[in-house]
Design brief:
heterodimer, A: mainly beta, six-stranded mixed beta sheet, five-stranded antiparallel beta sheet, B: seven-stranded mixed beta sheet, four-stranded antiparallel beta sheet, 50% strand
Chain lengths: 112, 114
């Protein structure tokens, strides 16, 4: 019940295309859902995050879609660029704990 | 946001020895955490570093193996004790204000145990 399931494990997208990564959870006590981007040899960098009272949040080319009833959320990267090639992690935080449970990660490759 | 630095960035250690990793935040933060990440894998929370009190460990992690200190609101250390090759991993520090849920990560310490 504490897991966050992430798919796909890897993704190849053409430059200019849309990258979509999905996450699902079971525990309704999760109340904060961030996405992180990690380049090789670097720490994860916070990209965008959402609370369950919002169905969508957009920041630049990055959009989170949130479906509370389905307990699913997804990251959309519009106009994907080779510089977006990285590993992406979704996470969920248990209400009041500030602790994160991470998904398994998605390795994105954007072809030039 | 917070800027976080870690020392060392990498190390190669002998089996049976201990290594202390330092985490420094550029501003006072309420929350500090330590994670472990196997190469190519996800992040697993080791413990919450509590300022002025003992750290709170997650299931599968114990204080004797991973002692943590948090002497003030900007600094924490994680020690990996009596190391074995299975401890080879990337160790990451993160910090959050405790007001929002945002966490910011350091660059990580890549540990190899031989």
């Amino acid at each position: 019940q504490q897991q966050v399931k992430q798919s796909p494990q890897s993704l190849i997208v053409q430059k200019g295309g849309i990258s979509i990564i999905n996450c699902a959870y079971e525990n309704t006590a999760f109340d904060y859902f961030p996405w992180y981007q990690q380049f090789p040899g670097k720490g994860p960098a916070l990209l965008i995050a959402i609370r369950p009272d919002v169905s969508e949040k957009k920041e630049g080319r990055f959009t989170i879609s949130f479906n509370k009833s389905a307990k699913q959320f997804s990251l959309h990267i519009m106009d994907s660029q080779p510089g977006d090639s990285a590993t992406y992690f979704c996470a969920a935080s248990l209400s009041g704990t500030y602790k994160y449970i991470f998904g398994t990660g998605t390795r994105l490759k954007v072809l030039a | 946001s917070a800027v976080i630095s870690q020392k060392p960035s990498r190390d190669i250690c002998q089996r049976g020895t201990s290594l202390t990793i330092q985490c420094q935040v550029d501003s006072q933060v309420t929350m500090m955490f330590w994670y472990r990440q196997q190469p190519g894998q996800s992040l697993t929370l080791i413990a919450t570093a509590n300022q002025g009190s003992e750290a709170t460990y997650e299931s599968g992690f114990v204080i004797d193996k991973f002692p943590i200190s948090r002497p003030n609101l900007t600094f924490s250390t994680l020690t990996v004790s009596n190391m074995s090759p299975e401890d080879s991993s990337i160790y990451l520090c993160s910090a959050g204000s405790g007001i929002s849920y945002e966490q910011y990560f350091g660059p990580g310490t890549r540990l190899t145990v031989t």
